[in-house]
Amino acid sequence: MLDDTLTLFRENESSAISSAQGVMMIDGWLQALDKDANLGHIKDGLTALRNHLNAGHPDPGKVRELMGQLANQVEDVAQGPYSQGQWTGGLQSMAQIIRQFGNSL
């Protein structure tokens, strides 16, 4: 899931990913993270972003804000006590990509 998401963000411009695609990706992440109690704040950030994208016409400024918050949450986990090995590097890359993607909106 992590590799697929990193590839999607790296290979597409922000305008190339629709709100519906974003919601589908978020749903996949919520399902993947469902059983990990240590990632509650990431799930909360994903849920907030998903709800905003589903609300109709998402405000780019609000999406940028939510993606910035999500990037911070992912970065916190990557640097936290439960991070390890290759997963940590992937999370750090994910945080940077989320932030860059949000800033490009």
Provide keyphrases for this structure.
5 helices; mainly alpha; 105 residues
Q: Termini, distance in Å? A: 23 Å
- Global mean pLDDT: 87
Outline type: globular
Q: What percent strand? A: under 5%
Q: Ranges with pLDDT <50 over ≥5 residues?
A: none
DSSP summary: helix tally: 5
Question: Secondary-structure element sequence?
Answer: HHHHH
**Total number of strands:** 0
Q: Determine Rg (CA atoms, Å).
A: 13 Å
Domain module count: 1
Helix content: over 70%
Largest sheet: none
Characterize the quaternary organization of these chains.
single chain
Which structural category do the helix and sheet elements fall into? mainly alpha
What does this structure look like?
The protein has 105 residues and is mostly helical. It is built from five helices and no strands. Helix 1 runs parallel beside helix 5 and helix 2 (19-33) packs antiparallel against helix 3 (40-54). The radius of gyration is 13 Å and the shape is globular. 19% of the residues are buried. The model has no long low-confidence stretch (mean pLDDT 87).
Summarize the entry for a quick read.
The protein is mainly α. It has helices spanning 2-11, 19-33, 40-54, 60-78, 85-103. The chain has one domain.
